[in-house]
């Protein structure tokens, strides 16, 4: 073989190898661009919302949408700062997502203010109609649907009466800036009727929880807490103050019983995230359309009790409740 022919053959081999490498690179690049992009906006970090996100991520992976492998899941957390929600929503939209997920009402509202075309899934929204997110629960009518974590208020009221049959006054603490909390408080008042007196205590932000809690525990026999993100963010402060006054707390969220409440009938937050993921996949795969997909509402909750807290407060929980409850 003469030198000229050898050089030609070497050149051809180099071209083939480079071609294969370029083809593999462009194929990887093309595949990466085709991966679905999912934007997740969370209002604040606290155990219940974090569990929703955890359930969502786990179920998305189970359904074949694993972050950085088979999907791009972009995550933003405003850490309770309302002023950050708008800019974070814009950042998510700049990545041209296929679908968006709002965890907590303020986050969902911020996303809804930015787009009417990209599908938005609701995670942990008590009153999507009152929050202006959907036309109705049965027929959302736009680009938004998802999961409501509306608390089973009737069951919660019965639980309070069963544990504290002589209760006369129940305090309700919530944030005036949360639409979902206002809805739940009104629902609570309506369902209570004349079973006991209700006193409401409103805070504009986490900073006022301590002062308002001191006032509240001096005036009530027990405290009911709706699914309120601001109160949840400052929950330990409330627990410490209520414990010193021997006032039991009945939160709406299961994780808040573990963190110092007495009991609740609450929605499993992790399963709420799982259901949100399942509905997200249905939209991504074209099996459903947000406009005519009803908002899913859990009809029953888990009965959760904190026996250690009951003992500290000198409260006897009926055996029938102990047998049914998760401890």
UniProtKB/TrEMBL annotation:
<dbReference type="InterPro" id="IPR028082">
    <property type="entry name" value="Peripla_BP_I"/>
</dbReference>
<feature type="transmembrane region" description="Helical">
    <location>
        <begin position="7"/>
        <end position="25"/>
    </location>
</feature>
<protein>
    <submittedName>
        <fullName>Peptide ABC transporter substrate-binding protein</fullName>
    </submittedName>
</protein>
<dbReference type="InterPro" id="IPR047776">
    <property type="entry name" value="ABC_SBP_TrpX-like"/>
</dbReference>
<keyword id="KW-0472">Membrane</keyword>
<keyword id="KW-1133">Transmembrane helix</keyword>
<dbReference type="Pfam" id="PF04392">
    <property type="entry name" value="ABC_sub_bind"/>
</dbReference>
<dbReference type="InterPro" id="IPR007487">
    <property type="entry name" value="ABC_transpt-TYRBP-like"/>
</dbReference>
<keyword id="KW-0812">Transmembrane</keyword>
